[in-house]
Write a structure and sequence with these properties.
It is a single chain. By secondary structure, the chain is of the alpha/beta class. The protein folds into two domains: about 200 residues, P-loop containing nucleotide triphosphate hydrolases (Rossmann fold), CATH 3.40.50.300; about 160 residues, Rossmann fold (3-Layer(aba) Sandwich), CATH 3.40.50. It is built from 18 helices and 14 strands. The strands form two sheets. A seven-stranded parallel sheet has the order 3-4-2-5-6-1-7, with helices on both faces. It has a seven-stranded parallel sheet with strand order 10-11-9-12-13-8-14, with helices on both faces. Strand 10, helix 12 and strand 11 form a beta-alpha-beta unit. Helix 2 packs parallel to helix 3 and helix 3 packs across helix 4. The radius of gyration is 40 Å and the shape is elongated.
Length: about 525
Amino acid sequence: MPGPRSGTSRAPPGRLRATERHNLTNSFSELGLSAQLVSALSAAGFDTPTAIQAKSIPAQLERRDIMGIAQTGSGKTAAFCLPILAGLAQLNGVARPMTTRALILAPTRELAVQIDEVLRKLASGMKLSTVLVLGGMSRGAQVQKIARGVDVVIATPGRLKDLVDDGKLRLNETRWLVLDEADRMLDMGFINAIRAVAAAIGPKRQTVMFSATMAPEIAKLAQSLLNEPVRIEANPPSQTVGTIEQRVILAGSKAKRGVLNELLADAALERVIIFSRTKHGADRVAKNLAIDGHEAAAIHGNKSQNARQAALKGFASGSVRILVATDIAARGIDVPNITHVINYELPDDAENYVHRIGRTARNGASGHAITLVDGTERSKLRDVERLIRKTLPVSGDLALANETGVKPGGAELRPARAPQQRRNEGERANPQRKQANAGRHFSGAKKAAIMDGRKGNNPARENAGPGGAPATAAGWWERPTGDAGPNGARPPKARWDRKQKQAGKARRSDGGRASA
């Protein structure tokens, strides 16, 4: 394989190299791959290259930069892994300490793990060292592996930039840079980290960008990172896989749970992914499924890496029939034989719909995508249909589900709460019983006014008593201490004078018994 390019020119602003045409082939050996790689592909069950593989692999073997656009599930991972393995096979020795020969960036941890698995499977029989550099995992273990030098680093941009800034990884000897799902990385705000990493590698690298969609921001990034790139389109941007049967069911937000249970009662739904718009929504759907008797696991950004991997492992092995996920996990789920994808809620970004349903019908298989839509999601549905350039068949009755309490399929919903009767003006909701002594208790200010009146300051109220009745005696608060009032039988307590107090004190001090 030719050595790294020495040119540093970039494509003219606003323009990428025209899409190159390649004749599709029925054999990987015709693409220029070694017999060892072809044998590994055959052992992994890959006999015929997909369109994106047939078009991009020859150009990459010629050390050309690639801007690849292909739908989800079209084989992009093998399309950039195979040329890297072919190039590594021609290098002598091992990587130097704290360096890597190839760097693959992915937006999510799940996608990075999937790439690592595919890379190891394709490298069967080769001596290949790889390391996953991801958040949520032990940083020390990652640094320890990198210190020995590795062939390939598969990383998410955030954790990788941290290691580069800390001097734990040097990119000066990196020959291959791959940006997988570049549009998603831009959406997640990794643009600055990507530019910093590319600058650390230098201009002599071979750069490959793959994306399922093509936006103006992606074209602008490609112009700054790629050197005279070859643009390859396996399918028009945002086009969904033709082997996916898509349909829409109208259902009110409260009726979706019942509709979902009706769908899951069909044994044909053998392995199902249900997508929710939010993390809390995913947890709620998974909890409701467990209550309704279904085996389900949830995966989203709030889960730890170990919990996410355990959920994916259970789903891939078949021990868990249903996986509930969010959009951030949609790019990293590559589980074979997924029969159905159910959109419990439509995504805010219509492009995420393409990535969601791309989890099924992978590598030429067939699949089904079912979307539950309530009244607030009609505009999102129109955005999806406009993006995929297709009108989806609709079933169900949204008005029936919302107004009569009957969902599509005829099952009854919980009856709505009866409206409360309106109260008359001034009527209390819960009237209290009138107090027996209401109005007969005086406040401190009123008591003070009565006292002033009795002292002659207010003659008009001199004889006023509780409730306006004449007062016959002073109140208890007016009498001096010890005065029991006119009805009291006990006389006032006798008081000692000073002489008596001194005499008592003297008796206590000397023990005398003289009388007072």
